[in-house]
Design a protein that fits this description.
Elements lengths: L1 H17 L1 H7 L7 H76 L1
């Protein structure tokens, strides 16, 4: 039993030595006042997580706005081109009707 506990303790010590930098990165203010330092570390960790989530949401929102703006702009351009084509067709058709009407009126007066 003591051999197993010794092996577990050795594994924890070796793990602590190997991952000391990572532990310091996650809990940088750990000191003799354990409760205060852990509270500070947890608060800092929460703030970092919150900042990361806010940044991700902002990036997603900006991407949505950019895509929407691009789509609306493309659709407006497309509609403008279609309206221009339709106006050209209406103008040509009106010119043709006016020409026919002019020819008819000219033929009647002659």
């Amino acid at each position: 039993m003591f051999i197993k506990l010794g092996i577990l303790a050795a594994a924890l010590v070796v793990g602590g030595m190997i991952f000391a930098n990572e532990i310091d990165m996650f809990f940088p203010t750990t000191s003799a006042a354990l409760t205060d330092s852990l509270k500070t570390d947890v608060t800092n960790f929460g703030n970092n997580a919150t900042d990361a989530v806010e940044e991700r949401i902002d990036e997603s929102f900006n991407e949505i706005v950019n895509r929407t703006t691009s789509t609306i702009s493309d659709q407006m351009t497309k509609m403008g081109e279609e309206i221009s084509i339709e106006l050209t067709v209406v103008r040509e058709s009106t010119e043709q009707v006016m020409g026919t009407l002019y020819d008819t009126i000219t033929a009647i007066h002659l």
